[in-house]
Amino acid sequence: MFEITLKFLAAVEKNNTTEWLHTNYDLYQQERKRFQRFLEPLLQSAKDLFPFRSELKVSQTMFRFNKDLRYSREKTPYKNHFGAEFSYEKRRSGYPCFYFHLANKNSFIGVGAFRAGPILEPKMRKYAILNFEERKKIQTSKPFQEYFGKLEMRAEEGEYEVLYYKSLYTLKKLFANDEKSIKKLTPEWQKILKMTYKEANEFIESMPKNQKHFFYQLCFMKNRIRDRKLSDELVISGDIFGEAKKGLEIAAPLINFLQKACE
What we know:
alpha+beta, 263 residues, 4-stranded antiparallel sheet, 56% helix
């Protein structure tokens, strides 16, 4: 389905200039419209699975192709991928989302919360901690683990100790002077709220492997995204829509769970 699209995106990687894209603008428009046509029935399926505000349009879910160079270290003008985010509001709203990323040799499906911001992120973190076992049940369900894999800390995530410290500090602020909520927490969380960063890190590290990653994610990680890689062979085949729809259905329980925190 996306064979020409991947070739176009690969060409953008090699020729990432305004002049090249202007010369190939018709091809860009053709492939962007192809991506949009793919998303339209997928968005309709999503609307049956989790809530959306008003009549959300596909164009509101798609990310711009040109970069915001103010926040980009790499100063080429265009992205090397097409992306779309299905959430309660339009893209970049901060709500829990389903994300589809189309790129040469790097396509994937994502689910969770990414850059939720100072209002929604604390709400989701607190709700997930208060309902820790329910969230854990969703992410350890057989369909979820078979599709998105088991929750594990990636090597690169272990480097951001300053961010981890700030996240633990934010966590303590969530429950400050909220004894009613604290009493509802599991014993592990009640202990963590009284610990320093170092103590909490050591305490979680001592937990069984199948337990500690869930505590790490809520305690120290600002973004909580699970993803599934998609091969180029799958992306160019006629099976990609079915694969994306399957991902939607498996992602829906987690999105609905996190959405409750935002209501």
